[in-house]
Design a protein that fits this description.
single chain; mainly alpha
Length: 126
């Protein structure tokens, strides 16, 4: 489970770097996988995820609408789409892994908390 959360965090970083970094999207997926596999605890993964969300939020806040409207680098990852296209990609990817984690929790006999409450529960019951 920790590696699933770490992968979701890493992907947020990857999209932000791909949209605004000097080299575009880093396609060395073996290196990405090694970094995720180094995450051993859920606490470590959650910390990474929190840091990724905070960093992305800061970038979102400082970039102008004009910057978000500029094209992503030419290439296999949404090449030519506006930078703002990463919002949907990040949302879809994170939701996909949240769903996977829900299935994993269920297989362990745990009942995942409802994510649509205010404030959200911080732990899985079971």
């Amino acid at each position: 489970m920790a590696q699933q959360v770490a992968h979701a965090a890493q992907t947020i970083d990857w999209f932000m770097e791909g949209a605004f970094g000097p080299d575009g999207f880093d396609m060395d997926f073996e290196a990405h996988d090694r970094k995720v596999r180094d995450v051993a605890t859920l606490a470590e993964a959650r910390a990474w995820f929190g840091k990724s969300v905070e960093s992305a939020t800061q970038t979102i806040d400082v970039k102008s609408e004009e910057e978000w409207g500029q094209a992503l680098p030419v290439g296999p990852v949404m090449g030519g789409a506006s930078r703002a296209a990463i919002f949907g990609a990040i949302t879809d990817h994170t939701a996909h892994h949240r769903g996977a984690l829900t299935v994993y929790a269920g297989l362990q006999g745990k009942t995942p908390p409802m994510p649509y409450v205010d404030p959200p529960p911080s732990t899985v019951e079971g």
